[in-house]
């Protein structure tokens, strides 16, 4: 299956993607995680991406599209993938369609995680991620690690993302509304969008998404 997850910052895309990818036996491809891995390795791509991310802006398409395509071309993604955080504007959505078309492939579904804005603000304020692997995500109240400050998955140190500061979060929400939301209409025109109410326990949201995919909506 080839699935796109969309939703505002803090909607729970990364959290859900980890479970959905495991259930569906496809890789979880997060452009945010790819950028953060490049930043922690100090690559030129990471250096370029960091200034945009810290300001809450999108990293330019000229960098992002090639990075996402390279990842989708890796061997583990041949049978499908779950995209988290890509595409994030109309240019990226069109590039993804063109990329899939050259391979005779298409998307199966676009899952739109719907969460009220006051909830995403609470989720982001309490989020802590792992220094060793930014796809290991916790929350100080809603999704506590067994030991405070320590990643359950790998023992890495938990910290607050730099772009989770209040002013940057406001900017990221603005960018979501102006640049990313239009892709929902773009995919509605292709009849691919399934809206998933994303309030409630993590496992309940995962179940809603799995049910929707099984119904083939
Ligand atoms: P990215 O890393 O993609 O961030 P984002 O889209 O802003 O999304 P988040 O990671 O903030 O949230 P999420 O929806 O994954 O929520 P999570 O599961 O962590 O992008 C970061 C930056 O990179 C961008 O600003 C941009 O600069 C750049 N970038 C990335 N992709 C790009 C692209 N394609 N083009 C250009 N630039 C790009 O959950 C949030 C918190 O809530 C966690 O603490 C979690 O434990 C908790 N939680 C989750 N589910 C629940 C629940 N059901 N109940 C209670 N708490 C919950
Ligand atoms: Zn970890």
From TrEMBL:
It catalyses: AMP + ATP = 2 ADP. One of its GO terms (cellular component) is cytoplasm. One of its GO terms (biological process) is AMP salvage. ATP binds at residues 10-15, 127, 137-138, 200. This is Adenylate kinase. Its EC number is 2.7.4.3. Consists of three domains, a large central CORE domain and two small peripheral domains, NMPbind and LID, which undergo movements during catalysis. The LID domain closes over the site of phosphoryl transfer upon ATP binding. Assembling and dissambling the active center during each catalytic cycle provides an effective means to prevent ATP hydrolysis. Residues 127-163 form the Adenylate kinase active site lid domain. It comes from Streptomyces noursei. It is found in: Cytoplasm. Residues 30-59 are annotated as: NMP. Belongs to the adenylate kinase family. Its main location: cytoplasm. Monomer.
